[in-house]
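Aim 2 progress update. The chain analyzed this quarter is reproduced below.
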Amino acid sequence: MKRSLWEGLFFILYGVIMTSLYVVTLPLILFWAKKSPKHARSIPARFLLRDNPPLSPDGIWFHSCSLGEARAIYPLLEALPRELLRLSTTTQTGYDAIVPKQSQESRYLPFEPLLLSWIKPQKVLVVMEAEFWYLLFALAQGRGAKTLLINARMSDRSFPKYQKMAWLYRRIFAHIDEVYAQSPLDKERLVLLGAKNVQVIGNIKLSAIPRPSRELCKPNALLICAGSTHEGEEPLILEAFAQLKKEEPHARLVMVPRHPERFAKVSEMVKRFAKTHRYSAHNYSENEAFNADIVVVDVLGELINIYAVSDIVILGGAFVPVGGHNAAEAAQFGCKIISGEHYFNQRDIFSMIEGIAIVTPENLARRLQQHALLMPTHIVQRTNIEPILESIQREI
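Predicted structure tokens:
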């Protein structure tokens, strides 16, 4: 009884605090939306419920945040009845990824206070990775859903921050019925934060790796793909490429920025760099042939296709403290892969791939010049998603 009373008081207090935060910050959020084309659809949907009605009840609700997470749940979605699927996300790229799987039941997840009237009873709620929203789990479970956290992780960098708020995460985990963790270390950390019924199955991004959607023409030259690059990484990669070009003048570089809003900036950077070094360069949207020294990929959906014809992949997101990206997408083709040291969000995937070269920014140019000594990568282990599917199917 005391626990129920405490839970009830916490629910009310949390709801009041988040509602107050919503009211105070809403004008700033809406101003930001007007200034940022990236959020032109997602912010009105999430904070004003514009064109964002509740999901139909009695379904299997999957929530994922980003593009990569949304694609990672595809194998689960394809194994379940389409008419039961209910999908939500928080980003525009994530939304674009879920719509093809269930166009009638795809939504942006509203900001927490709005969930009070938005959430309808579902059979199951399945949340990807680190979307720890208290009201999301509490309301879904309270309205009859079995709640699952899948692909759960707790990086070296994040864990100390979560520990400082352990009291909050214990309340969140009290409303999560089952947790499927990426690694034993993730399980240990999640349990310390209050998780129960934790099972280690590996990273589900290795259960079904995206395959090429079409075949590209590989140039008769050493092709290097800088995949999913972030702010601060492009200059480093360009300088390393320039050093390589002194020894291998026919080498070519394909630069693929992670975020669409940076396409124009990276394109201008490359044009200036190319002019200084007397290289040829063009944007992929203008010419899909890899017949220039540097090609900037300024469209979405082509990275896997480019990996398939690349000799070397410089994997972005790890030369700056972002956490890295999914190396399996390139490793499936046996590409030689060079990564930075900051791959903390991809630790489990990296452990299942042989041959990835981990280098410091200062050593990137030298390692690239020594590419003949790099090993082709190989995936040594895949993930079994059957335990998740079995848990879901018990509720159908």
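The chain has two domains: 2-200, 223-379. The CA atoms of residues 156 and 203 lie 16 Å apart. These observations will guide the mutagenesis experiments scheduled for the next reporting period.
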